[in-house]
Amino acid sequence: MTHSITRKTFLTGLALAAGLIGSTAAIAEAEYTFRVSNVLSEQDVTAFGLNKFAELVADRSEGRIEIEVFHGGQLGSGVETFEAVKNGYLDFAGDSFANLATITPAFEIFHFPFLFESRAQMLSALGSDAVQAQVNSELADVGLVWFSTYEIGGPRNVGTSNVRIETAEDLAGLKFRASRSPLEIGSHEAWGAAGVTVDWPGTPEAVRLGMVDGLTVPYASFYSAKFHEGDLINYILDLNFQNYALVIAANAEKMAELPDDVRTILEESAADAQAWHVEFVSGYITENIQAMREAGVEIYSLPDDEYQKVRDMTVEAVWPRFVGNEGMSQEKLDLIRAESGEIGTDGWGYSLGN
Predict the structure, then answer these.
(1) What sign does the dihedral 76-78-80-82 (CA atoms) show?
(2) Residues of the chain with pLDDT > 90: what percent?
(3) CB–CB of 187/215 below 8 Å?
(4) Alpha-carbon gap, residue 121 to 79, rounded angstroms
(5) What share of the chain is helix, strand, coil (3-state, %, to 5)?
């Protein structure tokens, strides 16, 4: 008999998944089956980490536990799948921190621009027991628990179609595609630019039609969505102004009800998959950058004085505006900064190759 923490009656919007899994004979041999939704595509850097998680669980449970990963938004949008987890219809949902904002502000503080100065600081903060405990105390209000995290491929950088940004002033007047993160849009506004909310699947068309001048996403996202092809993005400014990641959320009550041995396998496999993914990501992004350069994309940095201008005007405009909002207290910000630790010497973990 197969046990699952999902209900037999799945959401109508997730009917596709029911059709897909209903015909999978291998599931019949598993005692526990868990479904994981990943809004990002199977070619995205996050997919490698989730696939590793599924592989580790299968190996360690000797097939007793089955993890089914549905990439590319097969089960719905980020908001839809997080809601499904919250309501007990889906086991795990994964999407960027930004798209949890409509359900909970618990992760929004990680979007503060220039919050971290290196990958080492970001990983220290996200891996901190104290930080996770604080966030989970807030997630409890919506019945969720922070299960795991995978890097989406570095901090946000600035890609443009036709404008090479050489000074802080060059950002003014531009229109950038934005996620649903108020702090991403706030950063755009601090530059004198405009953030235009466009859901990820529609972004290439928005760039192609000139609805926006560019977008602010990590290198891996530029690459996996093929913005380096078809003359969509010709310049990428290595600004590293905002961090975010793929968060995997689970239903807190259902996780607590699992047998100890099952929960242990899930949690230990997730931790080891994350550690594996950290090692994987550095080389992957470096390869992405090289491939985009070879395709003709110019990837460059600002002079130090212009970088400092952008950093200062962004922090000075955005931080006071949001500190004190729900989920973004000064105490929580101080905790994250304290848990970030040293900057280290490895930068953001990838090479620009120039």
Answers:
(1) positive
(2) 80
(3) no
(4) 28
(5) 50, 20, 35
Q: What is the pLDDT of residues 336-354, one digit of tens each?
A: 999 999 999 999 998 887 6
Q: Given the structure tokens 């910000």, which residue do they identify? A: 333
Burial of residue 333, with CB atoms counted within 10 A of its CB: 0-12 exposed, 13-18 middle, 19 or more buried: middle
The phi and psi torsions of 157 (rounded to 5 degrees) equal -120, 175
- How much is the mean pLDDT over the chain? 90
Q: How far apart are CA 338 and CA 130, in angstroms?
A: 10
- 184 sits in the region (left: phi over 0; alpha: psi -120 to 50; else beta) called alpha
Phi and psi, residue 139, nearest 5°: -65, -25
CB 46 within 8 A of CB 40: yes
- Provide the residue type at 243 as one letter: N
Position 354 scores a pLDDT of 67
Angle, helix 119-127 to helix 330-340, in steps of 10 degrees:
120
Considering only CA atoms, which of 110, 112, 111 is closest in space to residue 320? 112
Whole-number Å distance between alpha carbons of 167 and 338 = 32
Beta bridge partners of 215: 159, 177
Helix/strand/coil (H/E/C) assignment for every residue in 169-213: HHHCCCEEEECCCHHHHHHHHHCCCEEEECCHHHHHHHHHCCCCC
d(CA 234, CA 292): 9
Cβ pair 50, 57 in contact under 8 A: no
Inter-CA distances, 122 with 86, 109, 131, 182, 216, Å: 27, 12, 12, 20, 18
Q: What is the DSSP annotation of 61-114? A: TTTSEEEEEE-TTTT--HHHHHHHHHTTS-SEEEEEGGGGTTT-STTGGGGSTT
Nearest to 98 by CA among 182, 201, 1, 177: 182
d(CA 114, CA 312): 9
- Find the Cα–Cα–Cα–Cα dihedral 232, 237, 241, 245, rounded to 10°: 50
Between CA 116 and CA 102 the distance in angstroms is 24
